[in-house]
Design goal:
Layout (H helix, E strand, L loop, with lengths): L6 H7 L2 H7 L5 E2 L6 E4 L5 E2 L4 E4 L4 E4 L5 E3 H9 L3 H12 L48 E2 L2 E2 L2 H9 L4 H6 L3 E3 L10 E6 L5 E7 L12 E2 L23 E4 L2 H7 L5 E2 L8 H6 L5 E5 L4 H14 L4 E4 L13 H13 L2
Parallel strand pairs: 13-14, 13-15, 15-16
Antiparallel strand pairs: 1-2, 2-4, 3-7, 4-5, 5-6, 8-9, 9-10, 10-11, 11-12
Helix pairs in contact: 1-4, 3-4
Length: 338
């Protein structure tokens, strides 16, 4: 019979600083409050301390990669284990019991001082990020995610027309399962107009998903209306710019045309301003009803700054469904009509 674990008891009596130090991570005081600590986050390529730890609450939060939780969450994510195993590891590191009534050698070892917080104090919310105001702009990231390649990912990308060369150009890869936002998804790096890395979009890998599972996940607080996907790779001058609806369409056809995506079917004033240096545009959205409506609206906005044409695809067709040789005739038809 498995030993009973009182998870609340373990959380209350653990010492998160001791646990984190056990994994070779050095913490330093952050500010004037002794319970506030900081260190290099182990969940991404951290070059400056972005891991915040509250030793009184026994919680952690990384403001860069968004990893957060309590002391057992830290071990669970760091070691890739389940909650029960993480609780046992925490108890062993801290020399405490796994429940108030457990009889073990660990239980006889003094728990950390509870001078600052008695064991029965109501638990604080496991969220340090709530105190941070939402960003007013998409600031450059101070880290890069560790992305991996595997046969399943490669096969999925190839099935969607994304070859190895394109994978390298866009720095695509699978996000680690440790990521609490885009774990195990295709990570698509996002850049500002001046080529600064400003986030990662997580794309669901697979074609069958539950209705409550989002296909794309953008970083929390990301202001997509300020950016155009792939704008950083546009040439300074080009005969025309193609606007696609999706990331996949941009990535599949970028080698043949200068193209961007407004992260959907709408074009903001800020995105329109980014395109002011170009004079000819072709809008190629998905061939369904929402795509057609979106293309019409975007074309109307682009008409205020230059020449614009709209490609109408078959109702069940998306640009990334087509190989370049299949999409090219659609573009030529509207280009010749100028």
């Amino acid at each position: 019979m498995a030993t009973r674990i009182d998870f609340k008891y373990v959380r209350q009596h653990a010492d998160i600083a001791r646990v984190i130090a056990h994994f070779g991570i050095n913490l330093h005081q952050d500010g004037s409050k002794p319970e506030q600590m900081k260190g290099l986050c182990p969940f991404h390529e951290d070059t400056k301390p972005s891991l915040k730890v509250n030793t009184d609450r026994n919680i952690f939060n990384c403001f860069a990669c968004k990893a957060k939780g309590n002391v057992m969450d830290f071990v669970k994510d760091h070691e890739g284990t389940d909650l029960r195993a993480a609780a046992k590891t925490v108890a062993e590191i801290c020399g405490i019991a796994t429940s108030e009534t457990a009889v073990s050698k660990a239980a006889q070892t003094p728990a950390r001082s509870t001078t600052n917080r008695p064991p029965d104090k109501p638990e604080a919310p496991d969220d340090l990020a709530a105190e941070i105001e939402p960003a007013s702009e998409n600031k450059p990231l101070q880290f890069e995610l560790k992305l991996s390649q595997d046969p399943e990912l490669t096969a999925w990308l190839e099935a969607h027309g994304i070859c190895e060369e394109t994978t390298q150009v866009f720095d695509l890869g699978r996000a680690s399962k440790r990521s609490k936002t885009i774990g195990d998804r295709l990570a698509i790096p996002l850049h500002s107009a001046d080529n600064g890395l400003i986030g990662y979009c997580g794309r669901y890998l697979g074609d069958d998903k539950a209705d409550d599972v989002p296909k794309y996940i953008l970083p929390k607080g990301f202001r997509k209306e300020l950016e155009l996907f792939n704008f950083n790779r546009l040439p300074a001058d080009h005969d025309y710019i193609v606007l696609f609806e999706s990331y996949l369409s941009v990535m599949r056809h970028h080698a043949h045309v200068a193209c961007v995506s407004p992260f959907g079917r709408d074009l903001s004033a800020q995105q329109l301003e980014l395109l002011h240096g170009y004079k000819r545009f072709i809008v190629v959205f998905d061939g369904d009803e929402p795509g057609a409506a979106g293309a019409s609206g975007v074309a109307g906005q682009l008409a205020t700054i230059g020449w614009v044409r709209t490609v109408v695809l078959p109702s069940d067709c998306k640009p990334h469904h087509l190989a370049w040789d299949e999409l090219r005739p659609f573009l030529l038809d509207v280009w010749r009509a100028k």
